[in-house]
């Protein structure tokens, strides 16, 4: 059967290592003047197997029909399953293909296909099957999970010069997928409506993606109802959306995202988001399985509450945290500190236990990001009883914290002053200098004082540290 194929296709078919039995109908006509036969070969696959060098997924249970003539190859409902699928799901990965390849003088001219695939795993084999200029991006992301593919329109045709164009449109559905980004994006359930034009050896010429995600997590925190429209700009070699929106713990998130390829090996992204009216209690209490131990250590209780707003801007190369820079601002209004929360340690050091001591009008954080550190330029926590302000840093990987804060008394004009407030009124400056260090979820708090108030601080029941 192979000997009847055009030379250009004979090699491809033989390299696919087909095995098994088929039903074969061959109509041959050697009446042509050049003694070359006109032919029509019909092959019905009967559960065959194949292994493709350029598509490293061994296939089995292949069924469907191929019709081969000197001008074309037609594929009718060619269906197969993955031969070595790891059975973590009830069903094996399935692929179904329809289409036609047009030939001109036994050489490829153009083709069209429709492709359906389900339960395909993100793994190294899939990466090896991708074009070279996409492989590097794929392996840096290190995706895991499964996806379904429904490309109703695939057209392949020769470019004016070298290479071929692939014009495609369809849907991709992610199921429980994870991506090795920074911050990590996990547990993605999303649908992508895609349309694009790709040139072999060069990359995308244009593209559009409409993303809808029912749910996903970014660094362990949940987003729902995420929507964004991405467009590809060939001149800039970037994917860009300016209308990213999502729901987040009762609040809203909006922003802009840009993914840009500076060189063949380097990918960079820019993320700019704003958020408002996020419920602090929901945000703190929602933890993933992987972070349950830390959640237990953090001991945020139901008394912690407030509403969060702010912004985040970050730019970095994919897979390279050393290049990360950004800005982060956070404001929490109507804040109440739970007595088991890390912030409560600041209050316990000052022996403050009344309910009003745990209520704050606002908390402000103004910081910037460099490499793996959040450098806090301003930390301000202001309430009716007292206030804290200062600066420091937080390691984004280890979650180690180093803050230097000043505690000051604060009260309403009609309120009776506490001892701390009286000291502040007399001295007119900070009473307690507090150093907050260690694990963010379980920080250690030490105090130092100015010499002029060393003795008066003992009235608070706190022994000052020896100045260095």
Q: What is the gist of this entry?
A:
The protein is mostly beta strands and 468 residues long. It is built from eight helices and 22 strands.
What does this structure look like?
- The longest helix is centred in the first third of the chain and has 10 residues, at about 130-140.
- Mean pLDDT is about 80; it is low at about 290-295, about 410-415, about 425-430 and about 450-460.
- This protein has a domain at about 1-85 and about 90-105.
- It has a 22-stranded antiparallel beta sheet.
- The protein has about 475 residues and is mainly beta.
- The protein contains 8 helices and 22 strands.
- The chain has helices at about 5-15, 125-130, 130-140, 280-285, 290-300, 345-350, 420-425, 455; strands at about 20-30, 40-50, 60-70, 70-80, 95-105, 105-120, 145-160, 165-180, 185-200, 205-220, 220-235, 240-250, 250-260, 265-280, 305-315, 320-335, 360-370, 375-385, 385-395, 400-410, 430-440, 445-450.
């Amino acid at each position: 059967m192979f000997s009847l194929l055009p030379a250009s296709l004979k090699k491809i078919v033989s390299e696919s290592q087909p095995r098994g039995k088929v039903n074969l109908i061959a109509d041959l006509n050697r009446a042509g003047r050049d003694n070359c036969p006109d032919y029509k070969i019909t092959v019905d696959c009967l559960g065959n197997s194949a292994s493709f060098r350029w598509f490293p997924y061994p296939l089995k249970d292949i069924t469907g029909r191929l019709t081969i003539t000197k001008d074309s190859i037609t594929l009718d409902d060619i269906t197969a399953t993955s031969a070595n699928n790891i059975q973590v799901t009830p069903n094996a990965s399935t692929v179904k293909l329809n289409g036609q390849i047009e030939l001109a003088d036994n050489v490829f001219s153009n083709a069209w296909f429709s492709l359906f695939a389900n339960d395909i795993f993100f793994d190294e084999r899939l990466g090896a099957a991708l074009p070279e200029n996409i492989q590097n991006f794929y392996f840096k992301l290190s995706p895991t999970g499964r996806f379904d593919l429904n490309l109703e329109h695939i057209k392949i045709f020769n470019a004016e010069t070298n290479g071929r164009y692939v014009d495609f449109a369809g849907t991709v559905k992610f199921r429980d997928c994870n991506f090795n980004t920074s911050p990590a994006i996990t547990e993605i359930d999303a649908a992508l409506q895609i349309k694009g034009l790709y040139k072999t050896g060069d990359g995308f010429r244009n593209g559009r993606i409409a993303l809808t995600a029912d749910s996903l997590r970014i660094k362990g925190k949940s987003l729902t109802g995420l929507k964004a429209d991405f467009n590809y700009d060939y001149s800039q070699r970037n994917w860009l959306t300016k209308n990213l929106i999502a729901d987040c713990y009762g609040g809203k998130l909006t922003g802009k995202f840009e993914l840009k390829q500076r060189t063949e090996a380097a990918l960079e992204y820019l993320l700019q988001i704003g958020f408002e009216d996020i419920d602090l209690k929901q945000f703190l209490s929602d933890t993933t399985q992987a972070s349950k131990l830390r959640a237990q250590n953090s001991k945020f209780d139901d008394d912690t509450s407030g509403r969060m707003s702010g912004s985040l801007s970050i730019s970095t190369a994919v897979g390279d945290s050393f290049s990360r820079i950004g800005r982060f601002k956070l404001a929490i209004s109507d804040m109440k500190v739970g007595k088991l929360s890390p912030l409560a340690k600041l209050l316990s050091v000052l022996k403050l236990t009344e309910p009003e001591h745990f209520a704050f009008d606002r908390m402000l954080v103004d910081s910037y990001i460099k490499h793996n550190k959040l450098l806090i330029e301003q930390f301000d926590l202001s309430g009716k009883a007292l206030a804290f302000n200062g600066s420091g840093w937080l390691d984004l990987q280890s979650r180690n914290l180093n803050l230097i804060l000043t505690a000051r008394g604060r009260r309403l004009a009609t309120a009776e002053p506490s001892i701390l407030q009286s000291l502040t009124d007399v001295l007119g400056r900070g009473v307690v200098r507090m150093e907050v260090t260690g694990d963010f979820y379980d920080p250690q708090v030490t105090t130092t004082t100015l010499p002029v108030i060393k003795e008066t601080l003992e009235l608070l029941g706190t022994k000052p540290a020896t100045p260095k």
